[in-house]
Design goal:
Blueprint: H1 2-5, H2 11-22, H3 25-37, H4 41-69, H5 73-80, H6 89-120, H7 131-139, H8 142-162, H9 164-191, H10 196-204, H11 213-227, H12 233-238, H13 247-275, H14 286-295, H15 301-335, H16 339-358, E1 368-369, E2 372-373, H17 374-401, H18 404-412, H19 419-447
Antiparallel strand pairs: 1-2
Helix pairs in contact: 2-9, 2-13, 2-15, 3-11, 3-13, 4-5, 4-10, 4-11, 4-13, 4-17, 4-18, 4-19, 5-6, 6-8, 6-15, 6-16, 6-17, 8-9, 8-15, 8-16, 9-13, 9-15, 10-13, 11-17, 11-19, 13-14, 14-15, 15-16, 17-19
Length: 448
């Protein structure tokens, strides 16, 4: 019974779960504000290119490693490199990275929980309420952000404790389609606002004069963040996958959905930013300032805003599920304790680790790390250091350590792709992907 509980019931379930891991804060919350700070259309174009050239192969690499071993991340690397146990640190680094990521991701999830509750009560869309000031009030009140953080953590613990089919898969099948419907409503209204064309132009017209080495690093980090690759989360997810599922088709579907949602997010956010003369480089608060302004222009806007925020909360949860799952799966494998008890323990630890980021805009506002506040510093370390490094090591592992025939077998099994597809993929993984990551990281280090 436990085995079926920890296996996807269908290809759709796996694709939606993988897409859920990708389509969350990365595509909806982070992409617009990073693009706003990094050149708009030029950044988005580089992001697309890096996602297709680097992100897609990395997604396939994690799928191959996971399904090829049918084991969670740490054990998978041990099985594939039995005479070189140090490679298992890729999986261990992924667990550490997910834990750090959850320490600020959960804070944003808590903000969304709070906004969802206030919106349901009908207290956000009000001419007398300034969206920026309201965001500052929410994030600047310690007890509010801590309650939101606790609720977000509890929601994750409840679903992860149920397992793969009964928890993660069922949640994704319900949440993801509804999110797309709400997104379309928001985009249609955003692009029809007076002044919206300037926002569309900023997002879609590439002006490379704003692009720097840092922008390219951010685009690479955003590509990894938006696909949830580099932490080996999808090694764990694909270990629950049946052998007759096409990995190329699944990866292509996930990348297409992730890019499409990133595109929708830009179309939903930037027209509103320019229509209401907001600051395009506002950073993390951007989405929370834009949404009330956008929905205030729609009949029954408060109702639609509440619905969108609840679905956005679902999307945020589907991403955090994958982060919790890699930690839970690895520790269950090693310690052999019950999944439910372990999930509670990990949830408590994540909550405690998230407190500094949660208090960044209130009690700990004066604390800085490398010139950044705690929240931004944690985000930077995870997105622009640990993620690229994790992907670099995975690429090297697949290209130089794994058995080439096993890679080929897993890539093509259940797929109609021919040997030429494998040769292209293998060349990218062995030479192009590591080189691009090294160049971007090296250039960024020189700049700093």
């Amino acid at each position: 019974m436990e085995k079926s509980k920890n296996q996807w019931s269908s290809k759709l379930g796996f694709v939606l779960a993988s897409a859920g891991a990708a389509i969350g804060l990365g595509a909806i919350w982070k992409m617009p504000y990073v693009a706003g700070q990094s050149g708009g259309g030029a950044f988005f174009l580089i992001f697309i290119l890096l996602t297709l050239l680097i992100g897609l192969p990395m997604l396939l690499a994690e799928y191959i490693i996971g399904r090829g071993t049918q084991k969670e991340a740490v054990t998978a690397y041990k099985i594939l490199a039995p005479n070189a146990p140090a490679w298992s640190w890729i999986g261990k680094m992924g667990i550490i990275g997910c834990f750090l990521l959850l320490s600020f991701y959960s804070v944003v999830g808590g903000w969304i929980f709070v906004y969802s509750g206030v919106s349901v009560a009908g207290n956000i869309i009000d001419p007398a309420v300034d969206p920026g000031a309201f965001f500052g009030e929410v994030t600047g009140t310690p007890w509010v952000v801590l309650i939101g953080l606790a609720l977000f953590t509890l929601a994750n613990v409840a679903v992860i404790a149920l397992g793969v089919q009964n928890g993660i898969e069922k949640a994704n099948k319900f949440m993801m389609p509804l999110l797309f419907i709400m997104f379309f409503i928001l985009v249609i209204r955003a692009v029809t606002l007076d002044g919206a064309m300037e926002g569309i132009k900023f997002f879609l017209y590439p002006d490379f004069s704003h692009i720097t080495g840092e922008s390219i690093l951010y685009a690479l980090g955003q590509s990894f963040f938006a696909l949830a690759v580099g932490f080996s989360c999808l090694v764990t997810y694909s270990s629950y996958l049946k052998k007759d599922v096409s990995l190329p088709n699944s990866a292509g579907s996930v990348v297409a959905l992730s890019l499409f949602v990133s595109f929708l997010a830009g179309l939903a956010i930037f027209p509103v930013v320019f229509a209401f003369d907001m600051e395009v480089a506002s950073g993390p608060p951007l989405l929370f300032m834009v949404l009330p302004a956008a929905f205030s222009q729609i009949p029954f806007g408060e109702v639609f805003l509440a619905m969108f925020l609840i679905l956005f909360l679902f999307a945020t949860l589907t991403s955090s599920f994958s982060m919790y799952e890699i930690i839970v799966a690895a520790v269950v494998e090693k310690w052999k304790i019950s999944r439910g008890k372990l999930t509670i323990i990990i949830g408590v630890l994540v909550f405690i680790a998230s407190i500094p980021s949660a208090l960044t805009y209130s009690t700990l506002a004066d604390v800085s790390i490398f010139g950044r506040n705690i929240f931004d510093a944690t985000d930077f370390i995870v997105s622009n250091v640990i993620l690229p490094l994790g992907n670099l090591l995975i690429a090297i592992f697949l290209g130089y350590v794994m058995d080439k025939q096993l890679v080929k077998q897993e890539l093509l099994q259940g797929s109609e792709m021919k040997e030429g597809y494998f040769n292209t993929f293998y060349t990218l993984m062995k030479y192009v992907v590591p080189l691009v990551i090294l160049i971007v990281l090296g250039y960024s280090i020189i700049q700093y």
